[in-house]
Amino acid sequence: MLNQFSKAYNSYNPQNRSALQLIAIPAFNDNYIWMVCKHDKAMVVDPGQADPVFEILKRYELDLCSILLTHHHHDHVGGVVELKQQTQAIVYGPAKENLPACDQALTEADSIYINDLELSFDILDVPGHTIGHIAYHGNINKTPVLFCGDTLFAAGCGRIFEGTPTQMFNSLQKIASLDKNTLVCCAHEYTLSNLEWAVTVEPNNETLQRRLFETKRLRSEGFTTLPSTIADELLTNPFLRSNQSDVIQSVNKYANTNLTDQVDVFAHLREWKNNA
Ligand code: ZN
Ligand code: FE
Hints:
Strand order of the largest sheet: 1-2-3-4-5-6
Strand content: 25-35%
Helix content: 25-40%
Number of domains: 1
Bound molecules: zinc ion, fe (iii) ion
Structural class: alpha/beta
Low-confidence stretches: 1-8
CATH class: Alpha Beta
CATH topology: Metallo-beta-lactamase, Chain A
CATH superfamily: Ribonuclease Z/Hydroxyacylglutathione hydrolase-like
């Protein structure tokens, strides 16, 4: 079941213009700019660069109608001003952060409706990586989808730059409680290196071993490993597993501690990963 969605969602199918399509557009070294499109309309999430988006819009004759931002980091907002100027797209973003452009400032419990795509998203506050970080939760072709920026990664999580470990822990728990089939559309292709570290935390987790094997194969064939699913993350992401005895034992061994509290275990896991 692992990575069951990856290939299907990776590339645009011109035969399928009347259906909603989800595409990962590569940017920089390892970013993805997620695009959702239908007919001749498109929205993007976290366009750190404008050019890769312009290229896709041109190639598939799409008009950009909306830009969704999760947080203020340059690799997520760097292309916003240029895209907005040339397309008049509406920019949505977190209310608590300074953004280069934002037409609608959002916070938890807000929801937005993208008219041109007939798509709605609920907003979740997920502070930790940055203090105002938000995520967008909706349905595409009846499949739940989450655009979560740099909060949850496949087999990893974002660094805690502005928030506290407790905030990040709570944000990840909020995400983990979503429907298991939810497609996790995170903003970086970090899956392989995350998994290589995760197997050192949980060497006896067979699902994790299989995921690592499958991910190596996907990467060697040039495929994207995303989106992930909440189900896969619950089984293999150490940052969602700080209540598991194997993870707790591993952390205590690494840090030479005797922690039992889940948030403490999580905080030490994050430190461990920072130093890995
Ligand atoms: Zn970031
Ligand atoms: Fe980032």
